């Protein structure tokens, strides 16, 4: 044994090949501080051995290396820039030391080789992957760029254009695509990976493969003349500007880094990479995107832990109420192989539900993501029926009828009489109290909320709402079923609007008050989309939600939380609703919706909407962007804080993921709590106090005031 550590070891075979094997103590290999240190020690041990003729790098696990240990990033990135620069410089030199070994090196990749794992492979002279391999540099998704030599080596291996496409999109490749683009040298079956890598290494040792030339090319300047460089980098910059926009600095920095380093050797190029990495590590976008990753890991871990407690296996679904939402829910179970009864009292609704499922599948076929077999199996898993008895064998029943408490209560009571005693019953309500609905059941312990978001197939979130009498066994089974459907479950406690809608409607209320005070809804939408980063401004979002739905939900919120959410006099949303302007569903709301000559959807600010508001709102005036953002976001932030303080949601991380997955909260801001903390709690308190006279939704709780005064963080409290 040449070297033996806790994460990797090096053994010398009979034919003088040193096998460097990554085998961390955890479930996967990743580059934490310990592994990086051991890699450098192992490399030094190999260099000191005169018996080694070549090095083969592989993993003893089912996957190669998943990347850096992101849990270490938060503390690292809180350091001074000079200290981060020292860290990343020393770490990237570990990969240089490996690359500079005096013997040929072959890296054998199975499964994931992402981020630092990909950079490890790039530091080798030859790369062999098996058919399970996925290789890529996804750092852009964390608001970062590669920091261990990826921006230097990949462009010199596959060309600057291809490398920038890899890095700025963060998309990984399978072995065949990586081979086609020149990133790897061979793709083999998993059972042949080890022997194929040894064979290529022996060829390199024997001089049949010119590994020195390959290495020299990686350490030299990019082979681009002045015109080629100008075309390559200007094209990449334009592509990034169009796709990433101004809110995401990482892809812009990647183009700048590769461009600046094009004429430099490895060491000079790495210095530029190190500096660019540090600059990104200190951005708000990086802090937010790393925060999202960690929050996502927490939510996934919690979901798996809760699901493990499930004692009932869900083998068949039933969806009550077809139509768009019911059809979407039925599709989601069916596409994951779960037989789903779709029951309604109206044949036309059943046909609409089936049409919704078919439409989703047809679009998937057009994009090449669904084949005929998948379409047929999914549709065969949906059993439409008008017969109540057809749901008798279902293990999980999801009620998705009209948002009316009396109708839902009647449907739930009838359902309980039809299904087995151990069947779980859920309501896909968006606002109605689960505790209230539970009163219609004899066994409320097997009942909870299961709130899907529209469109179901696109929106990752499902809010699982625990009622006062819901059993933990029910929650565990529903969380497990949600994961099986490919969705992200977040468990919340019952309250008006639950979590997502409870924080959304104060945002809408802030918007309505802005319009009453004279703001133009198109100006507000522009600021909230272009500056704040929402996929839709509040007027556009209300049109998508539907004015009838929004007016109904605001009434529910007003009844449930009257001290803060009383309906607003002359609310523009109510004016539109009473005028029959429901938004996208009937083509007229704040905007008029139609299609252009090519059949593409269009929207234009409606003159009829402006006319409707006359006499009910102040004369139009201009508000600066900071005031617009403050007046709509403070109410949302305040209500999110109250939800956390009241135990509606268990942690700030879960609240952030719920808004990200349920509403499309701007990822570069990291979620509502990350947004508040990026601003600084003391600054948030001061800003809210500035607008406190506008009403209760702007007035902060004593809890946040105390946290700001004591310098606490919502994330140190995350469960």
Automatic annotation (TrEMBL):
Residues 497-592 form the 3-hydroxyacyl-CoA dehydrogenase C-terminal domain. Keywords: Fatty acid metabolism, Isomerase, Lipid degradation, Lipid metabolism, Lyase, Multifunctional enzyme, NAD, Oxidoreductase. One of its GO terms (biological process) is fatty acid beta-oxidation. InterPro entries: 3-OHacyl-CoA_DH_CS, 3-OHacyl-CoA_DH_NAD-bd, 3HC_DH_C, 6-PGluconate_DH-like_C_sf, ClpP/crotonase-like_dom_sf, Enoyl-CoA_hydra/iso, FA_oxidation_alpha_subunit, FadB. Residues 318-495 form the 3-hydroxyacyl-CoA dehydrogenase NAD binding domain. Its EC number is 4.2.1.17. One of its GO terms (cellular component) is fatty acid beta-oxidation multienzyme complex. Pfam families: 3HCDH, 3HCDH_N, ECH_1. The keyword Magnesium does not apply. Pathway: Lipid metabolism; fatty acid beta-oxidation. It catalyses: a (3S)-3-hydroxyacyl-CoA + NAD(+) = a 3-oxoacyl-CoA + NADH + H(+). It comes from the Bacteria. One of its GO terms (molecular function) is delta(3)-delta(2)-enoyl-CoA isomerase activity. In the central section; belongs to the 3-hydroxyacyl-CoA dehydrogenase family. PANTHER family: TRIFUNCTIONAL ENZYME SUBUNIT ALPHA (PTHR43612), TRIFUNCTIONAL ENZYME SUBUNIT ALPHA, MITOCHONDRIAL (PTHR43612:SF3). This is enoyl-CoA hydratase.
């Amino acid at each position: 044994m040449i070297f033996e550590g806790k994460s990797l070891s090096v053994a010398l075979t009979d034919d003088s090949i040193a096998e460097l094997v990554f085998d961390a103590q955890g479930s996967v290999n990743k580059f934490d501080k310990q592994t990086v240190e051991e890699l450098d020690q192992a490399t030094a041990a190999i260099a000191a051995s005169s018996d080694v003729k070549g090095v083969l790098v592989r993993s003893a696990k089912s996957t190669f290396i998943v990347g850096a240990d992101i849990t270490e990033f938060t503390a690292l990135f809180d350091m001074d820039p000079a200290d981060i620069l020292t860290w990343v410089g020393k770490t990237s030199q570990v990969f240089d030391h490996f690359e500079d070994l005096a013997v040929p090196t072959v890296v054998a990749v199975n499964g994931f080789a992402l981020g630092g794992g990909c950079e490890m492979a790039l530091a080798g002279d030859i790369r062999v992957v098996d058919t399970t391999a996925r290789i890529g540099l996804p750092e852009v998704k964390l608001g970062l760029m590669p920091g261990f030599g990826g921006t230097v080596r990949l462009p010199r291996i596959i060309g600057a254009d291809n490398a920038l496409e890899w890095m700025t999109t963060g998309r990984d490749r399978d072995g065949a695509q990586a081979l086609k683009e020149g990133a790897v040298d061979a793709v083999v079956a998993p059972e042949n990976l080890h022997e194929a890598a040894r064979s290529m290494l022996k060829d390199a040792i024997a001089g049949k493969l010119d590994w020195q030339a390959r290495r020299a090319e990686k350490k030299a300047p990019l082979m681009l003349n002045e015109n080629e460089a100008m075309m390559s980098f200007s094209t990449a910059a334009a592509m990034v500007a169009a796709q990433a926009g101004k809110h995401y600095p990482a892809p812009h920095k990647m183009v700048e880094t590769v461009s600046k380093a094009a004429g430099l050797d490895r060491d000079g190029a790495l210095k530029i990479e190190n500096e660019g990495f540090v600059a990104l590590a200190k951005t708000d976008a990086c802090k937010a995107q790393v925060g999202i990753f960690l929050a996502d890991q927490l939510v996934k871990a919690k979901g798996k832990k809760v699901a493990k407690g499930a004692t009932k296996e869900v083998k068949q679904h039933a969806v009550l109420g077809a139509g768009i939402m019911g059809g979407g829910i039925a599709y989601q179970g069916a596409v994951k192989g779960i037989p789903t009864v779709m029951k309604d009292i109206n044949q036309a609704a059943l046909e609409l539900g089936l049409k919704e499922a078919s439409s989703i599948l047809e679009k998937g076929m057009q994009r090449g993501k669904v084949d005929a077999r998948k379409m047929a199996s999914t549709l065969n898993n949906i059993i439409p029926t008008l017969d109540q008895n057809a749901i008798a064998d279902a293990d999980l029943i999801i009620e998705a009828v009209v948002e009316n408490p009396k109708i839902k209560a009647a449907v739930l009571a009838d359902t309980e009489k039809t299904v087995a005693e151990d069947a779980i019953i859920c309501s896909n309500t968006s606002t109605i109290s689960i505790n209230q609905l539970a009163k219609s059941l004899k066994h409320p312990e097997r009942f909870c909320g299961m709130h899907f978001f529209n469109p179901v197939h696109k929106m990752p979130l499902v809010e699982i709402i625990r009622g006062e009498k819901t059993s933990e066994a029910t929650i565990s089974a529903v969380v497990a079923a949600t994961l099986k459907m490919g969705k992200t479950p977040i468990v919340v406690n019952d309250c008006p609007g639950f979590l997502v809608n409870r924080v959304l409607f104060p945002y809408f209320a802030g918007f309505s008050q802005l319009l009453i005070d004279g703001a133009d809804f198109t100006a507000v939408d522009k600021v909230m989309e272009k500056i704040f980063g929402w996929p839709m401004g509040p007027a556009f979002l209300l049109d998508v939600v539907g004015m009838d739905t929004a007016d109904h939900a605001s009434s529910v919120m007003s009844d449930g939380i009257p001290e803060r959410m009383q309906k607003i006099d002359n609310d523009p949303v109510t004016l539109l609703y009473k005028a029959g302007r429901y938004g996208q569903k009937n083509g007229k709301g704040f905007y008029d919706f139609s299609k252009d000559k090519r059949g593409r959807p269009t929207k234009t600010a409606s003159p009829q909407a402006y006319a409707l508001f006359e006499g009910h709102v102040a004369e139009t005036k201009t508000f600066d962007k900071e005031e617009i953002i403050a007046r709509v976001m403070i109410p949302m932030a305040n209500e999110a804080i109250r939800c956390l303080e009241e135990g509606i949601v268990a942690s700030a991380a879960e609240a952030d993921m719920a808004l990200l997955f349920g509403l499309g909260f701007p990822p570069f801001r990291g979620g509502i709590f990350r947004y508040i903390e990026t601003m600084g709690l003391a600054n948030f308190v001061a800003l809210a106090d500035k607008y406190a006279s506008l009403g209760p939704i702007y007035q902060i709780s004593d809890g946040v005031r105390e946290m700001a005064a004591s310098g606490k963080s919502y994330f140190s409290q995350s469960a």
